[in-house]
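User: Before I run my own analysis I want an independent prediction to cross-check against. Here's the chain; please return only the structure tokens and, at the end, one sentence I can use as a sanity check.
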Amino acid sequence: MSALLDKLIEQDDLIDDDFAELRRQARQQLMQYGFPDLKTEAWKYTSLRSLQKREFQAMPAQRSELPSLPFDADVLHFDQGLFDPKQAQLPPGVRLEPLSTLDPETLNYAQQADAFAWLNLARFEQAWKLVIEQPLERPIALVTTTSTDFAAAVHPRLVVELSANASATLIDLQRDQGQGLINSVQDIHLGNGAHLQHVLVRNNVQSAAIQRTRVRVNADADYRCHVLDQGGRLNRHELTVELLQPGASGQIDGVALIDTDQHVDYHTAIEHVVGKTNSRESFRMLAGGTGVGVFNGRIHIHRGADDSHSDLNTANLLLSDTARINTKPELEIYAEEVTASHGATIGQIDETAMFYMRSRGIPEAEALSMLKQGFAATPLESLDDQAIRDWLLSKLSSKL
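Assistant: Structure tokens:
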């Protein structure tokens, strides 16, 4: 992995700014530990060989296209992973400001054994803080796009903070057309009584999209995440939800569609730090061709977190003999008075259901599409916003 390290962080290319000392520390940690390999437990099913073979280039001059949305939203466009603040048009009660070195969020990953988080801290060009102070009527869309000649390595860094009793829908839309690396870090903080609906939509080509999201949920706050991952050469997302005070709740519902030469990896963790907290997670993967899917979901109920309630379920569908899905649900419980459950299944298309539909005159291709659609749509149907739900289901239907 030393060759990859040399490509992504050279000896004298650290940015000299107010974060210089943090950058130096992160670079030192990265140089000491290096990037993970297949012997690293959390990466044993995800290889970085495709990244090692790449020659990263400078940022292209061409601008990427901003996709249209079928509903009203306030849009922040991260063109080639970088944001122009002059284009920001935000509603009242929302602020976007540069992240300060005094903000504690900048330190979140400096001391953690995570190579790509260290790389982000050492190499990010921009760091922004989005503050939402009141309930919002329209969603905010964070749209990250790349052009066909994109072959750079970019490291977006964003903090999202919801004040007490604020509520919002945040659409994290990523559409890649290049062959670079998008290595992003997000920190999300929900104040007391806040509510966030976080919608993550990915549609990548050859670029590697590696993201780490940490969500902190305070008293009586509610975080809900909905994922539609339409595949990519290398997609990996580590999502951690920390339920920090009584009344906090977290929910993750996701589906990933994986095809030939694609690799999609989701590592999720829900931390019940205190009692009287609730969580639920449902994640589904469909893999065809030579596609590879990885799902590792962990529920951790800490010592003393009695009266916590959690449920984790993952269901997976293999659409070819050469596709692979590696799935691992985990429950780690250190309290006694809790309710917790988990389940995992991997299977193929039900031949009985196919026979039933064919016997009623439905063509084979249409019957197969209907079965896949019914299986994949379930995690998305829990979305409260009908316009966004219909948009995701339409994307799902087109992909299948």
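Sanity check: The first strand starts at residue 74 and ends at 79.
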